[in-house]
Specification:
alpha+beta, three-stranded antiparallel sheet, two-stranded antiparallel sheet, 42% helix
Amino acid sequence: MSLTCPPYESGRLEFGYHVRIETLVWAMTAAGIGGAERLRNTPAGWLGIFEALGAHLAQYPSNYSISEVREEFGALYLELIDKSSGRRATEVGQWCADQSIKRCMVFGTRGRIRSELGWVMTLSDAALDLLIETPNEHFLSYVYLGPDRPMGKDDVIEMVVPRFETRAEAYEWYRSEPLPGFDGLTAMQLVEEGKARQVIDYISAVDAGTSS
């Protein structure tokens, strides 16, 4: 059973985490894959793994059921049952684990296992900075996205980092480059006004070729 490594996200899940996860759960359930609802309330950054898994399992409709999904010491544990034999599809579970330890649980960008602050999590540099700056009780709301979670500086910077050679250049853009259509304000000024979502929507529009 060969699965394709999903692409890393370009930053915060700009196409809408909740729309994507609900679409995935609906499609997998419609294909006869049991337990797809267990993919909800999992680390947002691992959504690409689930989408690749769903696309693969759709080739074998009604053959599989997801019996358990959880985060375990920074890695994804997913138990998939082959309905025809009643046995666990261990190869798929291992693939999910291998993918997760390279993918930031918050942003879906490249990450690695971190344990510096006592928590064992797979995080990018930006997500680790966010963990350092954010009270523990709030940080998990970034990992397990709530529908009203506010966005901020780290979301914007993580999204634009791939467009620059270094993170320092990305921060310089964030700090000093006025954005067209925003009265000469920079991304940083807009974020300080609570408009991080508008900045992210603007960057997504530029990527899609609908803005300049």
